Amino acid sequence: VVAALFALASLVPLGFSKAPTAPVRRRQSRAPTATHALQMIADDAYLRRLFAMVAIGAILITGIDYVFKAQAHEVAAAQGLGLGEFFARYYAFVNGLSLLFQLLVAPRIIRFLGVSRALLVMPSLLLVGASAFAATLGRLPPLLLKGTDGALRHSLHRTAGEILYLPLARQTRERFKAFAEAVGQRGGQAVASLLLLAITFGGGGGDLHLIAGALVLLAALWVATMVGLEPLYLERFRSQLRDGTLETEVDIPDLDLGSFELLVHALSSEDDREVLAALDLFESYGKTDLVPALILYHPSHDVVLRAFEIFARSDRSDVRRLVGRLLKHDDEAIRAAALRTMAVTQGDEASLRDKLADESPEVATTALVALVRAGAVAEDEAETRLRELVGSPRHALALARGLTLLPLARFAWLPEALLSAKDVEISAAVAQSLARTPMLRFARPLITLLGHRRVRGDARAALLAIGEEALTDLEKALRDRTTPRLIRRHLPRTISRFGSPAAAAILVRALEGERDERVLHKILRGLGRMRTTDPNVPIDRDVVLGATRHAVEASVTALHWRLTVGRIVAFKQEAMTPAAELLVAYLDEKREAAIQRAFRLLHVLAPSQEFRIIYDGLKSTDKKRKATSLELLSHVVPDEIRDGILALVEEGSPRARLRRAAAFYDPPGRQLLDVALARAKQHEGDPDSLRELGLIYADHLRAMLESPSDALSSIVAHHVAELELEGLIAEVRRAEGESSDALHDVASRGLGLFAMPPEPSGAG
User: Fold this and answer.
1) Is the pLDDT of residue 509 over 80?
2) 362, 333 in Cβ contact below 8 A?
């Protein structure tokens, strides 16, 4: 009966294992499907070990709980106690012991033994206890087994187990823990209860012998899953340290500081990347006090400078002592960094004045900046001397690195003057300094840096440091068509990094009327990333749905244009030119790009519907997968665009797809072209029919020339010149004037084929 109740009780939680949907926090992952989680575990040896630990532990603990309760009546009777009084005394003792153990003993064991060996304590004790029970079937072993479980499971074992999840990437960690708790823990309890029910179903005196043997086997298996776990655990940490990808936004209690032992070892690594990653992690956790000051004597230039950054505002006495010694370092960058740290932590005016005569321009300039900060230089003199130094690259670099020391409200002209030099290294240093001293007035200069690849990351960090006030300037730059293309194309990604409703609203508004396809692609990527990270970020559904409809219509139009060129070429062989072949290929790409754009927008509308997987399935060569994707798409796509998008992705010839899609959106000129081609075929060689066909084709080419795509209009301009369609010269000139520099020459050469020079660039 007891076993049956165990089975029933353990199955009930499984029915409630799916919690009500809570508000999704920022950067929270979607719960994994069982298939995906199982595949993730099967592909990863470390995850397999963790899952086995959870499942086997759940089965073992359920079995121990059973034998304890089965023996409790006899133990209570032997002591002359009722069951209620016995359980009250027993659990009071065990829970008190567990509390003391968690507060006083568990942290020390973890620090002394390490995570992997601390995990072996409870399973090993349970193995000993289970073996004693199997040998004697006495009353004492079940009490000791349950006591060990109660005292250690929620203190030592739980704490050490949580640490094992730290080296997992955020997404993997969240998905695996959810699956392990739902399936490993609850499923293990259910399996144990069913096994107990099966063993005890027939009754008999051999039940306890069989159960005791099973407990010994399970305890041995549990120990085995933890033996050899340490290399996997440490390698997981090392791989992330080498790549600099260790995530730090994890809630870790103070007692888990023992897990930082590995990071301390990483500080002495021969691989500078590993040392730098460890320093980043210490800073992210706010544990820079654990970084030994002797890291400032590291042989790597980059490591020492990074250490100075994290010690910049530290008042540690050991750092102060070493800073004074490093003022004599051979490396001028390290001497300058030591001066910057001294200016913040000590302000030793005599030492700073001594360094004004340093042979290094960087050190001397840093000393001047530090003295200005300390108020040791008059305001007028300070501005005069700083302006004199801006023009020298080596002095300017030191000024850029020392901006954090200056009151920028008074010297606001200095960052802008430094950026005007357009030196990549100086610009990067300015951006890094402004990230530590953010001010809204520098948002626009920082936006101009987004066009430089080597400075872009620092500029974004500085804009993010300013906060959402910077979004106003970012939106203005995105809306302004005179903003250089190289800058505009990186604005959507920058805006999306804010991750806020205001940022999402800016990107949604930008969807309307955006003509640069590269910028539009970046907007969609930014919105998609934001909605994946937080599906609760609000969007204007009508605007996004309208953009999706426009993307589907653009795909239908590209399909129609591609078929138009193909049909004209098939009817008039003289139209088969090199540019026509290129045009057909490009229109195929343009049609597919528009479909991809529609799917990206669908993801923005409903990030939980797996539109990326559906799109990949539609492109699969596996017919079953393709059919499944098509069926799923028909159910999840919004009603407003269902017919159009299904017509484009269903099986069939291009002409059949266009006929189906025309019921959703009939591209201009389609019916006229069908009639004209039918008439030309019926009256083969008729001049009027051919003239009509030529005019219709010219109208289609004119529409392509007016497309916002530079590449398309430039290719069409060349094709127009090949066919000598002089009626389209004005449109070709417009394409030449509005195209980018890279494609300007294509249109110009098209005009050259007419033997007519292009108009001067300044002509009205």
Assistant:
1) yes
2) yes
Question: CA–CA separation, 408 vs 88, rounded Å?
Answer: 67
* The most confident of 70-79, 122-131, 438-447, 564-573, by mean pLDDT: 438-447
Q: Which residue has the tokens 């900046």?
A: 369
Measuring CA to CA, which residue among 63, 81, 65, 61 is closest to residue 73?
81
Of 66, 64, 44, which is closest to residue 56 (Cα–Cα)? 64
Residue (of 551, 477, 484) closest to 511 by Cα position: 551
User: What pLDDT digit, counting tens, does each position of 680-705 carry?
Assistant: 888 887 888 888 888 899 999 999 98
C-beta separation of 568 from 697 below 8 A? yes
CB neighbours (10 Å) of residue 594? 21
pLDDT tens figures, 77-92: 677 677 777 777 777 7
What interhelical angle do 642-649 and 578-605 show, nearest 10? 130
Q: What is the pLDDT of residue 29?
A: 42
Q: Quick one: tokens of 535?
A: 């599906």
How much is the average pLDDT of 252-267? 58
CA distance 553 to 436: 47
- Cα 21 from Cα 323, distance rounded (Å): 53
**How many other CB atoms sit within 10 Å of the CB of residue 685?**
7
Q: What does the alpha-carbon distance between residue 722 and residue 716 come to, in Å, rounded to a whole number?
A: 10
* Cβ-contact 287, 320 below 8 angstroms: no
Tell me the pTM: 0.61
Element (H, E) at 476: helix 470-479
Indicate if the pLDDT at residue 9 is higher than 60. no
Dig out the tokens for 747 from the structure. 């249109």
Taking the C-alpha atoms of residue 309 and residue 529, their distance in angstroms, rounded to an integer, is 31
**Rounded Cα distance, 36 and 435, in Å:** 40
The single-letter code of the amino acid at 242 is R
Per the document, the length of the chain is 764
The residue written with tokens 């290929």 in the block is: 585
Phi-psi region of 422 (alpha: psi -120 to 50; beta: other; left: phi over 0): left
What's the N-to-C CA distance of the chain in angstroms?
97
Angle at 579 between CA 577 and CA 581, to 5 degrees: 75
What's the CA gap between 450 and 474, in Å, rounded? 11
The amino acid occupying position 633 is L
